[in-house]
Specification:
alpha/beta, about 625 residues, six-stranded parallel β-sheet, nine-stranded mixed β-sheet, 17 strands
């Protein structure tokens, strides 16, 4: 107990009844949980098999178990597991389920794709649509929502309900359950079967839960049942780090815990053992603007280190170049690259950055798969148009763009593997409007053939009418049009400086191969700069943290409109900032994807102290320290 602070000791020594431990970033929550388990066994003589520790990830459960066994000096039968593994164990005993009954993630995609085909639903961005729909299905189950009153964000309500019902029907036919069903079925089982509920309550009279801020409604309802009648619930978490709303996490459940359990004792671990004072203070200045939170004030144990470096750049190209040069300087000092992290709001964020790091020969490792922009269906359409302009007449290429925008060309006109404009014109000679549309397309391709890639994309968007096609598609998918046009803006950025389609295609091939290499070596242990989304960085720490593009529309994300969404975005920024131990670099740009952009409101909210002063100049760069 010697290594614990007084407030940590108080949490560890708690015995019976509900306790809530608010554990800020770097405050030693894992140590507190493992020490408490040890204390329950050694000092209060609780049998180890009567203690259940629940975490959110398998990795966290394994790490905590290993740490506890090391601390205890022997193997003790304390149960460590995720919500899903613990609840699946309950289902196994009741329904004799086996692992084979759980539908793998890849099969979920196949099942939805099958439903779309059966319902004759043609979706251009099928992969993205399926991912979003599965997320919504998970939300409906995890939040215990009524399907009849749920309004989809991705398609019409009738379409979503049809997909949902068909998905459930297929699961039942195959006698399979998905991960969300593990929770739903456990809830229903414990609610209906008092005998089974009582058996599990007696088995685990002491329950400890890590990362409680990420709990969803159905998980909480099950936990409340399991904890009765003892209510020895020891929950640890930080409402300021709840960033998984898209998975159904509801921080208000943690905020409401003291109301649900009136006798709750509360402990606040407010000493950050990880970060310098400047970083902790900056993070505090941001997060205090959230209204729905437990008030707490984090203090740095480390003390004063380095000022937070905040800079504004002209555009992303200048920003990325400066970031690369700073890393090159660290490489010259022999800094271990894996202690440097670049954190972005989404996995699309590092697209341009990856190209810059490649150009500067900086080794990097990506925690998340960065979607290849050139494989996006919109990018594919641009490339298809260019390939047709270069003389490609394959039916598959032509099919993808012949009605984008709609020219009303029928598929049955294309009977050969190669498309002939002469034949198409012959087939449509009695339909003047169609004949004109085909003739116009042929002329457009002739004009395109003489353009640079950048000019060609612009021509396809405006003269051919692709922008209008996207606007119509966005209305169908209930999306903001700019979500689609931004792909084109990014694409145009990559096309700058290339004179011919062939040159640009060669760059695309090189970029694609590098992403492939990154994906293949992801599991290898190597020294490279870590590129991660803010979501995936949670629980990690680095000496140097770079946060690029801290702009409105990026963080907070453009889809965040309601106050509760803005508060989640602020929590995400807080999580990202508190990953830094020594050096924190926050960059924003004046122009984002060729459009004027403002720095994030989160920067405007923070006070002006603890920041680096002066000008940065290098070549043509003139970045202001703000």
């Amino acid at each position: 107990m010697g290594e614990l602070s007084q407030v940590q000791k108080k949490a560890v020594m708690h015995k019976d009844g509900p306790m809530m431990v608010l554990a800020g970033p770097g405050s030693g929550k894992t140590l507190v949980i493992t020490k408490r388990v040890q204390y329950l066994i050694e000092q209060y003589h609780i049998p180890p098999e009567r203690i259940l520790v629940i975490t959110f990830t398998r990795a966290a459960a394994g790490e905590m178990k290993e740490r506890f066994q090391r601390m205890a000096g022997c193997s003790l039968p304390v149960s460590f597991g995720t919500f899903h593994s613990v609840f699946f164990t309950i289902l196994k005993y009741a329904y004799h389920y086996r692992v084979e009954n759980i539908l793998p993630e890849s099969k979920k995609y196949e099942m939805i794709r099958e439903i779309l085909y059966e319902e004759n639903l043609e979706i251009d961005d099928e992969a993205d649509f399926i991912r979003s729909v599965l997320q919504e299905i998970s939300l409906v189950k995890g939040q215990m929502l009524s399907l009849e009153y749920y309004y989809s964000k991705n398609c019409g309500e009738d379409i979503f309900r049809k997909i949902f019902k068909q998905y459930e029907k297929k699961l039942h036919q195959k006698r399979q359950i998905d991960f969300d069903d593990i929770l739903v079925y456990t809830y229903e089982l414990l609610k209906e079967r008092k005998d089974i509920r009582k058996a599990w309550q007696q088995k685990f009279p002491y329950i400890l839960i890590d990362e409680f801020q990420d709990i969803n409604k159905v998980q909480y309802e099950i936990v409340k049942m399991l904890a009765q009648p003892f209510n020895n619930l020891f929950i640890v978490g930080d409402d300021d780090q709840s960033i998984y709303k898209f998975r159904g996490a509801r921080p208000e459940l943690m905020l409401g815990f003291p109301k649900d359990y009136k006798e709750t004792k509360k402990i606040i671990l407010n000493t950050n053992y990880r970060s310098g004072k400047e970083i902790v203070d900056f993070a505090e200045q941001v997060i205090i603007h959230n209204k729905k939170r437990f008030p707490k004030e984090m203090k740095s144990f480390v003390g004063s280190l380095y000022p937070v470096d905040i800079r504004i750049f002209k555009d992303q190209r200048e920003e990325n170049r400066h970031l690369a040069m700073m890393i090159r300087e660290e490489m010259a000092k022999k800094t271990q690259l894996s202690k440097i992290a670049i954190l972005t709001r989404t996995n699309q964020g590092p697209r341009q950055l990856v190209s810059t790091l490649m150009a500067y020969n900086i080794p990097f490792c990506m925690k998340d798969t960065v979607p290849n922009i050139f494989e996006h269906w919109i990018a594919r359409n641009m490339i298809d148009y260019m390939q047709l302009a270069m003389g490609d007449r394959r039916r598959s290429t032509f099919l993808r763009v012949m009605n984008r925008p709609n020219r009303y060309i029928r598929r049955d006109y294309l009977t050969e593997t190669e498309v002939s404009f002469e034949k198409l014109l012959e087939l449509s000679k009695d339909k003047e409007w169609l004949y004109d549309a085909i003739e116009e397309m042929r002329e457009d391709l002739r004009v395109l053939s003489k353009m640079t890639p950048l000019a060609a994309i612009n021509y396809i968007r405006k003269s051919i009418g692709y922008n209008a096609y996207l606007a119509e598609y966005a209305r169908f998918r209930r999306m903001r049009e700019e979500e689609l046009t931004q792909i084109l803006e990014e694409l145009q950025e990559t096309a700058k400086g290339y004179d011919t389609f062939e040159e640009w295609f060669a760059y695309i091939e090189e970029y694609t191969q590098e992403l492939k290499r990154q994906s293949e070596k992801k599991q290898e242990i190597q020294d490279g700069v870590i590129i991660s989304t803010m979501h995936s960085s949670k629980g990690l720490e680095f000496d140097h943290v770079f946060l690029p593009d801290v702009n409105e529309g990026v963080i907070p994300y453009k889809k965040s409109v309601k106050e509760e969404d803005i508060e989640e975005e602020r929590r995400m920024f807080y999580v990202a900032v508190t990953r830094a131990k020594k050096y924190l670099h926050i960059f924003s740009v004046e122009k984002l994807y060729n459009k004027e952009s403002r720095k994030s409101r989160f920067l405007r909210e923070a006070k002006q102290k603890n920041r680096q002063e002066g000008e940065f100049n290098h070549g043509k760069t003139n970045a202001k320290s703000w």
